Write a sequence for this structure.
C-alpha cells in the first residue's frame, strides 16, 4: 500500500517521453476507430453498427475540449498558434469545417454510388452527383458554423478562466 508514501522526484525527460507516448497512442486509437468506421460503412452491406467507434471519437473530442477550456490552456494554445502560424486559428477552424463538409459529401456520394448503383456506370455517376451536391449544401455550412462558433466560444471561456486564475494567483501573492 503506497497511499501515504511521498512521490519521488521524477526525471522531467522521462515524464515528457511518457506523455509523448500516451499522445501517440491516443492518435493511433483515433486513426483505428476512423478506419473501422469507414471500412464498416463501405464494405459491409448489411450495415455493421459503428456506434462504439463513433462514441470513442466523439467522447474523446469532447473530453479534450472541456479539459483544455477549463484549465485555460485553449486560449494560450490559440495565442501561441496565431503568433507562429500564417493562418489564425479561427481561419484554420473554418477551413477544417469546410474540409470536413467536403470529405463527408464525397464519402456519402461514393457510398451511395457503391451501394445503390446497378453496375452500368451511368446510374452510379448520377447517384454520386445527386448525393454529393445535396451533402455539400447541407454539411459545409453546418460544419463551418459549428467549428467556427465552437472555437470562438471555447476561446472566450478559456480566456475568462485563464484571467480568473491569474487574478486568483495575484491575490495569493
Amino acid at each position: 500500500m503506497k497511499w501515504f508514501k511521498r512521490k519521488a522526484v521524477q526525471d522531467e525527460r522521462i515524464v515528457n517521453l511518457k506523455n509523448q507516448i500516451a499522445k501517440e497512442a491516443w492518435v493511433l486509437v483515433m486513426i483505428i476507430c476512423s478506419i473501422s468506421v469507414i471500412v464498416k460503412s463501405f464494405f459491409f452491406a448489411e450495415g455493421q453498427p459503428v456506434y462504439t467507434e463513433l462514441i470513442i471519437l466523439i467522447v474523446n473530442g469532447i473530453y479534450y475540449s472541456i479539459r483544455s477550456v477549463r484549465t485555460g490552456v485553449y486560449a494560450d494554445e490559440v495565442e501561441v498558434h496565431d503568433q507562429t502560424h500564417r493562418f489564425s486559428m479561427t481561419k484554420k477552424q473554418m477551413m477544417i469545417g469546410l474540409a470536413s463538409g467536403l470529405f463527408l459529401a464525397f464519402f456519402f456520394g461514393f457510398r451511395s454510388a457503391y451501394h445503390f448503383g446497378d453496375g452500368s456506370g451511368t446510374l452510379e455517376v448520377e447517384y454520386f452527383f445527386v448525393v454529393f451536391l445535396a451533402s455539400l449544401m447541407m454539411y459545409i455550412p453546418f460544419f463551418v458554423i459549428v467549428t467556427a462558433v465552437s472555437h470562438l466560444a471555447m476561446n472566450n471561456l478559456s480566456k475568462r478562466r485563464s484571467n480568473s486564475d491569474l487574478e486568483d494567483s495575484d491575490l495569493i501573492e
Remarks:
- The radius of gyration is 22 Å.
- The chain has two domains: 10-70, 72-173.
- The chain has a mean pLDDT of 84.
